[in-house]
Amino acid sequence: MSKPRVPWKAVVGGSVGNLVEWYDWFVYSSFAVYFAASFFPEGDDTAKLLNTAAIFAVGFFMRPLGGWLLGRYADRRGRKAALTLTVTLMSASALLIAIAPTYESVGYFGALVLVVARLLQGLSVGGEYAASATYLTEATPRGRRGLASSFQYVSMTAGQLVGLGLQIILQNTMSKEALASYGWRIPFVVGALAAAVVFYLRRSLLETEAYDEERRAEEPSERGTIRGLLAYKREALLVIALTMGGTVAYYTYTTYLTKYLSNTAGLPKETATLVSFCALLVFMCLQPLAGALSDRIGRRPLLITFGIGSMLGTVPLMTALGGATGFGGALALSLTGLVIVTGYTSINAVVKAELFPTGVRALGVALPYAIANALFGGTAEYVALWFKNAKMESGFFWYVAGCAAVSLVVYLFMRETRDAALSRAEQTAGAVPEQVQPGRV
Q1: Which residue from 258, 279, 262, 263 is spatially nearest to 328, judged by alpha carbons?
Q2: Is the pTM of this model over 0.90?
Q3: CA dist., res. 440 & res. 438, Å (int)
Q4: Do 161 and 285 touch, CB atoms closer than 8 A?
Q5: Which whole-number Å values give the CA distances from 328 to 34, 76, 331, 333, 334, in the listed order?
Q6: Which residue, among 417, 431, 432, has the nearest Cα to 149 in the 3D structure?
Q7: Is the per-residue pLDDT at 440 higher than 70?
Q8: Which domains, from first to last, does the chain contain?
Q9: CA dihedral defined by 217, 349, 5, 281, rounded to 10 degrees?
Q10: How many whole angstroms separate alpha carbon 60 and alpha carbon 365?
C-alpha cells in the first residue's frame, strides 16, 4: 500500500509566512551586538547585552497572551485567518524597530519603542506557532504528518539563516561604525517588506478539511475557549512539560550561540556568525529527515533521544565551545548540539497538535507552549548572561541539562501520538486505538 501524498502547496504556503515571522523574531537577537549601544548609555558591553536580552525576553512574556487571543481566533475563525493576521502584526513590529530613535536623540524613549515592538512581536509569534503547527498538521494525511510538520522548523531556521546571511553580507560591505550607526536597521526594513508580501500569499491558502468539518458539525460556543481547553488540562500540562527542555536547548544552540562564541570563546563576531550560519544550514536539512523517521518509528523515540543527549551532553559541549579557538572546532561542537536538539524540534509541533481535538487544537497548542516559552525559552539568553555576569557561567550549562532531565521524564511516560486521528473523517477511514485519539494521553 502506497503512502499518502504530502500536500506540498499547503506545506509551502504555511511555511513561507513562518519564515518571515521567525526572521523578524530572531533578527533582533542576531543584530543586538550592533544596536545595543544605540539605546542605552555608555557602559560595560555585557551590561548592554543584558539590557537588550531583557527586552528580548519581554517579547516571550507577551506570547501567552498572543497564544490565547490568536489561538482562540484560529479555532473560531479558521487557521487561514489566523495565519494572515499574525504576519500582519509581525510586519508592523519590524517597521517599528526599523524607525526606533536612539538614546542619543531621545534618551530612553527609543528603548521604550523597542519594548512596544517586542510586545507586538510576542503577540504575533504567540499565535503564529500554533496556527502554523495546526495548519501543517491538519492539512497532511496521517502517516506523513511528521514530515510535513517538520517544515515549521525548516522555515523557522531558514528565517534565521536569511537573517544571519544578511548580517554576513553587511559585515563584509559596511564598517563596524556604519553597522552600529544605521546598518542594523536594514534587516528590520527587509522584514517588514517581506511580511507584506507574505500577507498576500497567505490569503490564497485553503482552509483545512479538519477545521471545515468541525465548523459545520458544532456550534462555536466552546470552540477555542478556555472553558473548552480546561477539559484537556492534562494535555495542556503535558505540552508545557515536554516543551521545557526542548525550548531551552534550542535557544541555547541558536540565538545565544553567536554571543557565546564571541563573548566567551573570544572568536571574532564575523567568525561566530559564520559558525552559526553553517551549523543552522545543516540543522535545517536534518528536520525533514527526522520528521519522516518519526512517521515510521513514532514520536517518542526521537524525544527520548533528545532528552538523554541534552541531559548528558550539554555541560561538556558548552564547556568545550567556550574554549573553541577556530572555525572548524566551533562548528563541529555546534553541530553536535543541534543534532541532539533535532530530536525535539523536528516533531514537537506535530506531537502537540496530535494531543487535542479540532475544536481546541490551536488554543491547546498555543497557550501552554507560549507559557513554557515565556518561562524557559525567552529567559534562556538572559539567564545565560546573568550567570556570566556573576562569574558562574557553567551554572547555565547545568540549568539547561536540568530542564532537559525534567522533560525526559515526561517523554518516558507519555503515550505515542503518531497514529492519532485528527478528524472524524480519519476516525472513520480506519480503526484507531482509543489511547491515541486526540485528547487521550
Answers
A1: 279
A2: no
A3: 6
A4: no
A5: 25, 50, 5, 9, 10
A6: 417
A7: no
A8: 12-204+232-416 (1.20.1250.20)
A9: 150
A10: 16
